[in-house]
Amino acid sequence: MKIDYYAYQSGMREWNAAFKVFTALATLCMVIFLNRIAASLFVIVSMGVLTLFVGEIPYKVYFRYLLLPLSFMIFSCVVIAVSVGGQPVGEWNISFHFFYLYCTGESLQTAVEVFFKAVAGMSALYMMSFSTPMSEMILVLQRAHLPRLFTELMHLIYRYIFILFDAAYQMQTAAKARLGYCSFMQSCRTFAAIGGNLFVISLKKANAYYDALLARGYDGRLEFLTEKKPVKVWQVLCSMLYFAGILLIALERV
Amino acid sequence: MTNKEKRIWKVSIILAAVLAVGQNASAMHIMEGYLSPIFCVAWGAVCIPFLVKGFMGVKKVFTENPKAITLLSMAGAYIFVISALKIPSVTGSCSHMTGTGLGAILFGPCTTSILGIIVLVFQAILLAHGGLTTLGANTFSMAIAGPLVSFGIYKIFKKCNLNKRVGVFLAAAAGDLFTYCVTSLQLAIAYPSQNGGVGASVLEFLGVFAPTQIPLSIVEGLLTVMIVVALENYAGQELKAVGFEKAD
Fold first, then answer.
1. Residues near A190 by beta carbon (within 8 Å), at least 6 away in sequence
2. Which of B194, B202, B228, B231 would you mutate first to test chain A, the one with the most A CBs within 10 A?
3. Fold classified for B30-241
4. What is the tens place of the pLDDT at every residue in A99-137?
5. Looking at residues A53-79, what average pLDDT do you find?
6. Which domain holds residue A187?
7. A239 in a domain, yes or no?
């Protein structure tokens, strides 16, 4: 949940939310459509610079988040690169007597492409999520005409997540103080007790919050005051140049 | 260092690398940018009928009882928090439940599909698990396929009057395993093996993720049973309110 905390402090907080979401999504789409290592590298570097220097996100935090899906990435890229088969085929192969592990130049290239594409996609996503608080993003979705009930659910779920996290944290502390995590079985029991209790708490709070909503005149629509953050001309120009840059780099060696 | 010592040293490094990397296992979210555009769109399209059905169900609940809005939101927040809490493990690693099996058992698969996609968006943006372009694929495996299997197994056990706790265990564990199989299939279709095609590729993906996913689904099954038992003991009233009846 640290991402949300940094999003509120970001140097790009004052930029228009819809503009940031659009830029990130457009970059994301270009990266996966073009599927070229050079373009992916350009996006990784540029989005990293934007998040780290304009957004002023601590670099330790940023790199820790970039490494988060590492295990998934390594496993699945290895599977793309290496295949199992009965015959020794491909440029490189290892014999295991019953079967062969082999790897062709083509599969290796796919794996590397996918790796960079995925990291580029993540850095574009992080540019958005490290600079735009969730509530502003939900308002962008609302502006994009997603069903009202859906965005309203998102708003409320987002708020309640913090309340439940707080409750869970208190219960975990209480359990720790009573040696609730002293052995594996005990920690399972503690986890289940917390899970059960959390459910009871969430339902109780749901009732209380509905009363609170009614008391403030809730009639099926949540309304929020929003700050106006107009898109600046230089931002639009920069993003146009940026998209053109990605295209140029990708198409250069065709 | 002697040769033998060197070899032990090397093996220990490899072991540490492999185990440490394998440890940070959450449910299998396909990461951002991993799928090519065709598959992003295709899996998103597959989800649409389920989501529309789920949305209509939620809307009906909401028009009948406006009070359900806070209840449903709390349910969504509950699934998110349960899936973000670290589950106990022997090695001190960091793994998480999917929580959607529990959601399907408590709230039904339709509601879970809508809550699931919202939770997946939050997981992508707030926790960096999964992504926006892979949202369709992840929604299908985690918020639709898994919960449907969980709910089906749970219902069958209830209809046949079999042991309810075994039913809950199997429902949660099988839902998790099915999610893992569907994700492997999604990855394999996107990146088929050159000689063996999709079939060989599915087996490879299944094999690579099995060591983390199979124990995880068993643990998830056990924890879900324990949570349901705790709920039956302490929250009979609340369970009735969400439509989950007591066994005895």
1. A175, A180, A181, B88
2. B194
3. Arp2/3 complex 21 kDa subunit ARPC3 (1.10.1760)
4. 777 777 788 888 888 888 888 988 998 999 899 888 888
5. 83
6. 139-215
7. yes
